[in-house]
Amino acid sequence: MPSPVFRAAPVRVRVPATSANLGPGFDSLGLALGLYDEVMVRIADTGLRVDVAGEGADTVVRDEGHLVVRALRRAFDRLGARPPGLEVVCANRIPHARGLGSSAAAICAGIVAARALTVGATLTDDEVLQLATEMEGHPDNVAACLRGGFTIAWLDQAGEIADAGTATARVLRVDPAADITAVAFVPAEPLSTEVARGLLPKLVPHADAARNAGRSALLAAALTGGRSDLLLAATADRLHQDYRAPAMAASAALIGALRAAGHAAVVSGAGPTVLVLTTKGQVETVIEAGAAAGGAGWTPLGLAVDTAGAVSLSTAEGTWAGNESR
């Protein structure tokens, strides 16, 4: 077999923040948001160099344990090509451990960069989604990060309980109505996804599951049909938010106050960020309502819906194989 061949020039990948669940759509609904991490990766002669600026610069590791590096390695293995060295530069804007998909963004950035750097082998979009889902553990955030827009994701495995390691990840991507936008209220303190998931019960009442199924369908119709008048009702949840509330009391209080004021507020992903689905003309009103309800300690971000998903911003000509000069 021919030796693996890699692009000589670096590639730069941009990946959006995401919000999963959106209230009733637990582990299935996702929305890509206009807040981005950028990652530059270059093939080197040897070793590993990782630079990080922005979010997480003071805390993330700069070795093989870095999540972008782990995703690069997994993707290169899937492509059948391991480069001798890597240089990775991350410019992070997505807050870490706040429920805005920072881990999904890192995973997607690594996989997309590896695909862009490899010549003579490729991963299809579906294979990229599958690998990202295997790494993340569920498809909701990675589906929205990769495809952009509003996504409905699921694991397809007939006859058994599906899990990310054995099932096929699927996604339906649609554009929300043009007027739909979001406001995120980001707290100063993070929350571990593992802690938040650990609060969920193994069983829920049938009535609650049935109610959420109906609200999830209503939310999809409201987002894509421009029915902003239905967003408050469509984002009601009984499957996860109340169970997680003890770990994020301030988030729960802010959600309650915003919803009482008529705004479609939910926990973003596993929290603790609070996300409000709204229209472009209501952004300032939502921010003012959040300030009145939450007081200090929250950073409000008006975020457009991202429709591009993960993109490779530069793939220059030229290849590099082994230790040939560049």
Assembly level: single chain
How helical, in percent, are the residues?
Answer: 25-40%
Structural classification? alpha+beta
Please work out how many helical segments DSSP would assign: 10
> From the alpha-carbon coordinates, what is the Rg to the nearest angstrom?
20 Å
Major beta sheet summary? 7 strands, mixed
Order of helices and strands: EEEEHEHEHHEEEHHHHHEEHEEE
Morphology call: globular
Essential attributes:
four-stranded antiparallel β-sheet; 14 strands; disordered C terminus; 326 residues; single chain
Give a short synopsis of this structure:
This protein is α+β, with helices and mostly antiparallel strands and 326 residues long. It has helices at residues 67-79, 102-117, 125-136, 140-147, 193-198, 206-225, 231-234, 241-244, 249-260, 283-294, and strands at residues 5-7, 11-21, 25-44, 47-54, 85-92, 118-119, 150-156, 168-174, 180-187, 264-267, 274-279, 298-303, 311-315, 319-320. The strands form 3 sheets. Strands 2, 3, 4, 5, 7, 8 and 13 form a 7-stranded mixed beta sheet that branches. A 4-stranded antiparallel beta sheet has the order 10-11-9-12.
